[in-house]
Amino acid sequence: MTTVPGHRTTYVIKKPGSGPKIEKGSTATLHATGVVKETGAKFWSTHDPGQQPFSYQAGVGQVITGWDQGCLGMTVGEHRELVIPADEGYGSKGFPAWGIPPGATLVFTLECLNVR
Question: What φ, ψ does residue 60 adopt, rounded to 5°?
Fold first, then answer.
């Protein structure tokens, strides 16, 4: 596991990529599956029926801190697993609408599809 500099989120590269890197300000498109570490319950997946790959502007706070900082440096084609502690995820409130309890550690399995 590698720790994201200046944060507590960690990651493991499951499969290296070879394309452009996600950098602050770039728009990244990823496949993602999120699981609550404590329960193993999946709360979201872009692979589920009716879902699409997720696009966002990287490094500017549009998503939770652990995701925002933990995806920086990913390359197109890379598969990465992020482990995000509660304070860099949804914190003490959780995200009840998605079944994320207060204080939950989140595990995301990610595949970088595109960077622009």
Answer: -120, 15
Distance, CA of 104 to CA of 116 (rounded, Å): 32
| Residue 17, pLDDT score | 98
Burial of 48 (0-12, 13-18, 19+ CB in 10 A): exposed
Give the pLDDT confidence of 21-37 residue by residue, as tens digits.
999 999 999 999 999 99
CA–CA dist 106, 34 (Å, integer): 7
Whose tokens are 């502690």? That residue is 85
- What is residue 20's DSSP assignment? P
**Per-residue exposure over 64-74, b if at least 16 CB sit within 10 Å of its own CB, e if not:** bbbbbbbbbbb
CB 101 within 8 A of CB 6: no
